[in-house]
Write a structure and sequence with these properties.
heterodimer; A: mainly alpha; MetI-like fold; 2 domains; globular; B: alpha/beta; Rossmann fold; six-stranded mixed β-sheet; three-stranded antiparallel β-sheet
Chain lengths: ~250, ~260
């Protein structure tokens, strides 16, 4: 166990060390890469000023809003597609096609429909995340045991009750896998869209702004901060998943 | 009173690889089962026992013939089913008690009453102390007992069991059979139990329906007049051996 923890921090330490060496020996110009200490103090500075908290709030708000919308839309569609073969056949192509379009390529279209405010960012996030959730929920049903459904049907469990009591819990492990992918993607989409237009708040806006005015330590600091937020979101969802999905393994 | 009537059932499958080749599984099967009887269907592996059970359950349709349960199409009757594979027919995300409650939730029975019924059956098979254990935490034998409790709690007109103990070891199987009989004795549900284990088929039954190899016909229906409640000692009684010998003789002359 002790050994495992060592391995866990070994590679990050090597990366940090190489970063320090590269920046202190000026192997790469400080215009491109700041020193770890500069980035560290810049981060402290950002938090003492406090404005970064507002940006974190806006980014998280948009990501969560889109993600939750995606759950409400994507999971039911995926479950129904997974269970009814005819619906699957008629929607499979559409879903696969939309999934193949890089969702950021659709952002101009979403701007057109939803305007430059929060709505277009949230809508694009919801769009991207629901496609992921549809696929995962659908596979959740496909991978489920057919006998459980057959057994429930012998007890006259049908329709909505069948979904609620058998199909949904059966697909839940896959759905959670999809939720983790979708949540990470939500953060990606929000940060990217914040770099474009229509907001003065958000981590994406701050990153592109710092780069434009050559505040390089600040840029690195917020990039890393965004990474930490994404990491923590994923870990928290994994923790919730482990509490709920207790029956696999 | 006759509760299950099986009239001239035949089942044929079209063989998919050979054109027009018909594969006959069941050949003109007829029998009657009286209310409250425990009947076992015994026959060699692959003879069509499960197909017959599925047809009675209404899961599959016969090619010829008809089934009547309480004089009606099986579609309209309430059937309890215990599958061979308990891991894939029960709900691992629920507790032992929760699994039994599933059978009651769709019948407009309130929460308190549901728990009472489920606990009653768990108690009957001495599993009450495991009621809050998740299904996957139970041993194989316990899991199948929970499945049996679920079928009884559903309060069906007839109970159908498809080799429920076939994946358990010898001594667990014998123990489970006695537990099953304990619950059955109390409710006196008409039960149709498929088995390929001759001791099991005799120990449980009021009568045994003996099927031949495929295409299955009824070789014989034997009444078992061992006294109830059945006990494990009976497995080595003279009477038991006589019945066993009689059944084995039926298969002696069969061509391989």
């Amino acid at each position: 166990m002790k050994n495992n923890k060592l391995y866990y921090v070994l590679i990050p330490l090597i990366i940090l060390l190489s970063w320090t060496i590269i920046s202190s020996l000026k192997l790469i110009s400080p215009l491109f890469i700041s020193s770890p200490s500069d980035v560290f103090f810049e981060t402290i500075n950002l938090f003492t000023i406090g404005k970064i908290l507002v940006d974190i709030y806006h980014t998280l708000y948009r990501a969560f809003f889109g993600f939750i919308l995606a759950c409400l839309i994507g999971i039911p569609i995926g479950l129904i597609m997974g269970y009814y073969d005819k619906i699957y056949s008629s929607l499979e192509f559409v879903v696969e096609f939309f999934r193949s379009i890089p969702s950021t390529a659709l952002f101009p279209l979403f701007l057109l429909f939803f305007g430059i405010g929060d709505e277009s960012k949230i809508a694009l996030t919801a769009w991207t995340a629901s496609l992921v959730l549809i696929i995962h929920s659908m596979y959740g049903v496909h991978l489920g045991k057919k006998l459980r459904i057959k057994a429930a049907k012998t007890m006259n469990i049908r329709g909505a009750k069948l979904f609620q009591k058998i199909i949904f819990p059966e697909a839940l492990p896959q759905i959670f896998g999809g939720m983790r992918v979708a949540l990470s993607l939500s953060l990606v989409i929000v940060v990217v869209t914040e770099m474009f237009i229509g907001t003065n708040f958000g981590l994406g806006f701050r990153i592109i702004n710092a780069q434009l005015v050559y505040k390089i330590p600040e840029m690195y600091s917020i990039i890393i901060l965004t990474g930490i937020i994404g990491f923590l979101l994923n870990k928290s969802l994994l923790l919730i998943e482990k509490r709920i999905i207790h029956w696999t393994n | 009173m006759t509760i299950i009537e099986v009239n001239n059932i035949s089942k044929e499958f079209l063989q998919s690889n050979k054109k027009n080749k018909i594969n006959k599984v069941l050949n003109n099967i007829s029998f009657k089962i009286e209310d409250g009887e425990f009947v076992t269907i015994f026959g060699p592996n692959g003879c069509g026992k499960t197909t017959l059970l599925n047809i009675i359950a209404g899961i599959e349709n016969p090619t010829f013939g008809e089934i009547l349960i309480n004089k009606q199409n099986p579609e309209f009757s309430k059937k309890g089913f215990v599958f061979q594979n308990y891991n894939e027919s029960m709900l691992p995300w629920r507790t032992a008690l929760g699994n039994i409650e599933l059978a009651l939730e769709i019948q407009n029975i309130n929460n308190k009453k549901r728990k009472e019924i489920a606990q009653h059956f768990l108690n009957k098979v001495d599993l009450l102390k495991y009621k809050d254990n998740y299904f996957y935490e139970l041993s194989g034998g316990m899991k199948q007992l929970v499945a049996i409790c679920r079928a009884f709690a559903y309060n069906p007109e007839i109970l159908l069991m498809d080799e429920p103990f076939s994946s358990l070891d010898y001594s667990t199987t014998r123990k489970m059979e006695l537990e099953l009989l304990k619950v059955w004795r109390e409710t006196k549900k008409t039960t149709l139990f498929v088995s390929h284990d001759i001791d099991e088929a005799i120990l449980l039954a009021d009568k045994i329906i003996i099927l031949s190899k495929r295409p299955a016909i009824i070789k014989e229906i034997i009444k078992i007049d061992l006294p109830r409640p059945r006990k494990l000692e009976m497995l080595s009684s003279k009477k038991f051996f006589e019945i066993r010998k009689k059944i084995l003789r039926l298969f002696e002359n069969e061509k391989q």
